[in-house]
Amino acid sequence: MEYPKCPQCGSEYTYEDGANFVCPECAHEWPQTAEVIEEEGLVVCDANGNLLVDGDTVTVIKDLKVKGSSSTLKIGTRVKNIRLVEGDHNIDCKIDGFGAMKLKSEFVKKN
Fold first, then answer.
1. How far apart (Å, rounded) are the C-alpha atoms in residues 18 and 57?
2. pLDDT in tens, 31-87
3. Which H or E run includes 35?
4. Distance separating the N- and C-terminal Cα atoms of the chain
5. What's the whole-model pTM score?
6. What angle do CA 53, 7, 62 make, to 5 degrees?
7. What is the pLDDT confidence band of residue 29, given thresholds at 50, 70 and 90?
8. How far is CA 38 from CA 18, 32, 66, 93, 109, in A?
9. How far is CA 99 from CA 44, 51, 53, 94, in A?
10. N or C: lower Cβ tally within 10 Å for the chain?
């Protein structure tokens, strides 16, 4: 069986571990069910390796400084109805009190 390349670093040396695929080079883990979605388009995982889809609710896991503002996005902030986009900041959302912004998936966890 040929295993998929790592969605994080592109390594071809991935292996199967239970219900997940694991990359030995960057230690990224993702569920095997993500493979069906990967063939169809964009695959985005949260900080814990859970697959994210449009419309999910996520929680911020780290205090984040907001560019152009003196305020900080606090840990534990819930973000509803996310939209996945291509690029470095792969989550597009609206946050109460901050407005529209983009987040990196590595700083959120799925609820």
1. 26
2. 776 444 444 567 888 888 888 888 899 999 999 998 888 889 999 999 999 999 888
3. helix 34-40
4. 33
5. 0.63
6. 65
7. confident
8. 19, 10, 31, 22, 20
9. 22, 25, 21, 5
10. N
For residue 37, give the H/E element and its range.
helix 34-40
Instruction: Let me know the angle formed at the C-alpha of 38 by 33 and 39, rounded to the nearest 5 degrees.
Output: 110
Compute φ and ψ for 87, nearest 5 degrees. 120, 180
Residue among 88, 91, 55 at smallest CA distance from 73: 91
Lookup result for tokens 């991935």? 14
pLDDT, position 33: 64
Please give the structure tokens belonging to residue 43. 């695959």
67: Cβ contacts below 8 Å, ≥ 6 apart: none
CA distance 32 to 47: 16
As a whole number of angstroms, the distance between CA 9 and CA 22 comes to 12
